[in-house]
Amino acid sequence: MVNLLLFFKIRKVKIYKYNSFKFIYCLKRKRYYILTNEEYIRQKILLYLIYIKKYDISNIYLENKIKIKNKVFKIDILIKNNNKPYIIIECKTYKNKIKYIDLDQIIKYGSIMKIKFYWLTNKFNNLIFYKKKNKIIFIKEIPTNFKI
Question: Sheet harboring 21-26: ordered strands across?
Answer without folding.
Answer: 15-18, 21-26, 31-34
